[in-house]
Amino acid sequence: MHRYDSVLLKQATRLHKFLAQQGGYPVLLSTGLCVALFAGRVYLSRTLIFLFLFWNLFLAWIPYLCSLWAVYWHQRYPRRWWLLLLPGLVGIAFFPNAPYIVTDFLHLGERPPVPLWYDVGLLACCAWTGIVLGIYALRLLQEIVRAWVGTILSWIFVLVVIGLSGVGIYVGRFLRWNTWDLLVQPQAVFYDILVRLRHPLGYPKTYGVTLLYAALIFVCYLALTIGPHRSGQS
After folding, report:
1. Can you tell me the distance from the alpha carbon of 182 to that of 188, in angstroms, rounded to the nearest whole number?
2. CA-to-CA distance for 39 and 33, rounded, in angstroms?
3. Whose CB among 21, 93, 140, 184 lies 3.0–4.6 Å from 67's, allowing a Cys bridge?
4. What is the per-residue pLDDT for 175?
5. Radius of gyration in angstroms for the set of CA atoms belonging to the chain, rounded to a whole number
């Protein structure tokens, strides 16, 4: 029995260390605050308005979980790069869902008896959680890419993913496609995008939304990954 307890303790310690290194606790805490705020809103209003936020949060967790999966394989089998393809590709495909939550502010409005300021706080918390999940996911993938191909190419990888994320946010919010449609209706999704690429002057919103949200994600990425360091750190 003591041996079994010792094994469990070692596994729990390893899991704790892994989560701490990959930012697991901040995103769990932030998600918990979203749940608490939503529960408070349900209590006050007796309605499930904004329940869609939890579907969006679930989608935002997918790229982060995929990045943890990739990090685990990378640490355990550092030479088997092919093991990283599935979690990496799935994580990149779902990455736009994380910052996408910022656009849910479009749903704000007076909804008594819940005050507007409460809903602003709820949406802000969910948007922040989505951004952090996305930034952490991309940072973990960048570190893996850096280990394989170097710093410069890892930053090119980041810029490409962020640019595609800007496109993804536009496609999701205004064309109403989602990530699953890349599997079930890929031709229709790519046709909608191709039309706008071929006639850029006819679709200024496409480029405006794409550039705006790509810039926002990039600035957040820099702020959360290369901000101030403690004294003595490089």
Report:
1. 9
2. 10
3. 140
4. 86
5. 20
Dig out the tokens for 197 from the structure: 């690429």
166: DSSP letter: H
pTM of the model: 0.90
Instruction: List the structure tokens of 169.
Output: 């946010």
Give every CB contact of residue 92 below 8 A, 6+ residues apart in sequence. 63, 141, 161, 164
Phi, psi of 114 (to 5 degrees): -80, 125
Cα gap 173→133, rounded to integer Å:
19
Specify the residue for token string 């496109």. Answer: 167
Identify each DSSP E strand in the chain by its residue range.
none
Residue 2 has pLDDT above 70, yes or no: no
Tokens of 154: 């890892």
Under DSSP, the state recorded for 111 is: B
Round to the nearest angstrom and report the end-to-end CA distance of the chain: 45
Instruction: Yes or no: say if 214 and 100 are a contact pair by the CB < 8 Å rule.
Output: no
pLDDT in tens, 186-225: 888 888 888 888 888 888 999 999 999 999 999 999 999 9
Residue 153: name the closest of 162, 163, 143, 166 by CA: 143
Residues 6+ apart with CB under 8 A from 208: none
Q: How many Å apart are CA 205 and CA 108, to the nearest integer?
A: 21
